[in-house]
Design the sequence.
């Protein structure tokens, strides 16, 4: 049902973004991939999905302008690229704060401001952002991430209101812990911050807050993203969907 529509998924060489890109391509969208990775693997992915790849660094606004130029007019914008750093606030490196705010929050502003004119002109568009349960609730040692994700949820509400009469919706999907490289890579820092073993971090920190005691799978997030693109979802805008195994229900 997405034949004739172009979808840009930021941070789609791995994890959740990759699952979303695959799901949108399966619905017929022309997909533009973005993110870092091994050249050969990315070429194989492009081949598999009939997609193009633009390797812009989204922490810099000029990187985002280059990406949007290379992508061309976009009908479905998925703001997904993100990163994490785990440290007590007094030890939190200021450059990590700046980079996380730039990638997890400001990048979504820049992609949206550049994508919206085409969406308005076409009278149809979908802006979907991968926020996080951390857009709804906090955890210690994640000051930049929690601040950026709360900001992303706020930006989404503003976009929803501004675009409400133009056939363009803006929504967030807010997963709990999804088993991706982003989660796996934060285990060593959490071990250090909390003085725990790997198993303790997995069971007592990551899955402790997730009542299902299971990681969300990237494909579950992708399925919701696809639904938000459907005509049946045209009245869903400004929403922030928790997909967190019950975490934020507590
Ligand atoms: P991941 O680390 O597997 O993938 C991140 C993607 O972003 C990769 O494609 C990477 O190349 C790209 N990327 C990183 N820095 C970039 C930059 N500067 N410019 C452009 N691209 C860049 O991560 P993931 O777990 O799939 O996370 C995707 C999104 O989902 C993030 O926004 C993350 O905050 C959010 N999220 C993840 C979880 C989880 O448990 N994994 C939970 C909630 C929210």
Sequence:
């Amino acid at each position: 049902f997405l034949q004739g529509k172009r979808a840009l998924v930021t941070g789609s060489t791995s994890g959740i973004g990759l699952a979303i890109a695959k799901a949108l391509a399966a619905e017929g969208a022309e997909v533009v991939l973005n993110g870092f990775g091994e050249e050969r693997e990315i070429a194989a992915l492009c081949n598999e999905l009939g997609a193009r790849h633009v390797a812009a660094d989204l922490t810099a606004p000029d990187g985002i302008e280059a990406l949007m130029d290379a992508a061309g007019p976009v009908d479905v914008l998925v703001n997904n690229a993100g990163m994490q750093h785990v440290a007590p606030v007094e030890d939190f490196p200021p450059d990590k704060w700046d980079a996380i705010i730039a990638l997890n929050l400001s990048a979504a502003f820049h992609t949206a401001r550049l994508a919206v004119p085409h969406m308005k002109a076409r009278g149809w568009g979908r802006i979907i952002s991968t926020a996080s349960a951390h857009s709804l609730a906090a955890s210690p040692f994640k000051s930049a991430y929690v601040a950026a994700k709360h900001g992303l949820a706020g930006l989404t509400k503003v976009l929803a209101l501004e675009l409400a009469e133009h056939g363009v919706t803006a929504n967030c999907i807010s997963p709990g812990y999804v088993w991706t490289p982003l989660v796996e890579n934060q285990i060593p820092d959490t071990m250090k911050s909390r003085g725990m073993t790997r198993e303790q971090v997995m069971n007592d920190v990551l899955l402790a807050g997730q009542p299902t005691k299971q990681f969300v799978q990237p494909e579950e997030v992708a399925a919701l993203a696809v639904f938000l693109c459907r005509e049946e979802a045209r009245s869903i805008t400004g929403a922030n969907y928790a997909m967190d195994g019950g975490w934020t229900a507590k």
Q: What stands out?
A: Helices lie at 15-26, 39-49, 61-71, 94-122, 143-163, 181-194, 198-206, 218-229. The longest strand covers residues 168-175. Residues 94-122 form the longest helix (29 residues).
